[in-house]
Amino acid sequence: MAIRVLAGLRILASARVLQYPDQKLRFFSNLFPKSSPGEDPELGSLLKNQSFSDPDPTIVGFLKGSPKPINLESKIEFLKDLGFEKHEIDQILHSFPAIASIDVEDRLRPLSDEFHELGFSSNEVREAVIHNPRLLGVEAGELAKCVELLKRLKCRSAIKKKILSKGSLNAVMETKLRIDCLCGYGLIRRDAFRVLWFEPRPIIYKLEDMEKKIEFLIHKLGFSIDCLVEAPEFLGVKLEKQVVPRCNVIEHLRSIGGLGFELGLKDLIRPSKLKFYNMFVKPYPDCVEIFGRFSRDVENKPKVLGDHSC
């Protein structure tokens, strides 16, 4: 009992995802049997010894319930069988506390089998899990499509090299996280794979950067998530450098009635910097100032035949 409670408290204290009362309640409801500090002297002493002299009322309230306990020891034994050292298991438990609620036989073991069926060695699996413990939360069967996507990529070799720089399995996991992100915003799974196949650069960018672009797309530009299917390159360009200046120009033109047609996302993103400048900036003195230093960049750039920079 004490070991399980202590492990749970350590996980709770270090888990960023458990920062709200309802999250803590759900987590503890999957971890502890019926008990409370007042009813169990051992538990009350343990709380005080771990600097919980005034225990969180959410935890105390939970411990008075009657949830189904979870066998955390089985997860630890499973990780040991995979070759993880004690300090690595501690790191995994702290970084991915949700593993406490994942069944070994129904989820973790089939997932381990799938890793090997997909051709990943035990060492690759170990390194990938240490780098990203959330890999252990993947449902069996989810990784195969991501593996296939990475095999079919036709991007520049430099981009593919960066994608695979931390190992193939880590690249698969990063791909899955971005697929999940797109689906979380409402894109169907088939289209999410299509977007990343056409524009794989988000895999090498931070997930937060991708989320920031999608938020900008929906709430600032007013486009739906489905527009990414027609213009997936939006997720590959730099937001502050390439999107925001163009957005400011278009907003100004709309406000003065200088835009004679409705722009789609691809109309905003695909033109080169020079083409966009000639179409929407140069004819309007106010827009030259709004475009700022990007106007000077275009005006001062030597004209080279066949230059299609963006």
Structural class: mainly alpha
User: Spans with pLDDT under 50 lasting ≥5 residues?
Assistant: 1-40, 42-68, 304-310
- What is the H/E string? HHHHHHHHHHHHHHHHHH
Summed up, the helix count is 18
Mean pLDDT across all amino acids? 78
Bin the strand percentage.
under 5%
Q: Report on the biggest sheet.
A: none
In total, how many beta strands? 0
Rg over CA atoms = 26 Å
The helix content, as a percent range, equals 55-70%
Large-scale geometry: elongated
Q: Would you kindly provide a written description of the structure presented here, covering whatever features stand out?
A:
The protein is mainly alpha-helical. Helix content is 60%, strand content 0%. It has 18 helices and no strands.
Q: Layout of SSEs?
A:
Elements: H1 2-14, H2 21-29, H3 41-49, H4 57-63, H5 72-81, H6 86-95, H7 104-117, H8 122-131, H9 143-152, H10 157-163, H11 168-184, H12 189-198, H13 207-220, H14 239-255, H15 265-269, H16 273-281, H17 285-291, H18 293-300
Helix pairs in contact: 1-3, 2-4, 9-11, 11-12, 14-16
Q: Brief description of this entry?
A:
The chain is an all-alpha fold. It has helices at residues 2-14, 21-29, 41-49, 57-63, 72-81, 86-95, 104-117, 122-131, 143-152, 157-163, 168-184, 189-198, 207-220, 239-255, 265-269, 273-281, 285-291, 293-300. It has 18 helices and no strands.
Give descriptors for this structure:
60% helix, elongated, mainly alpha, disordered C terminus, 310 residues, single chain
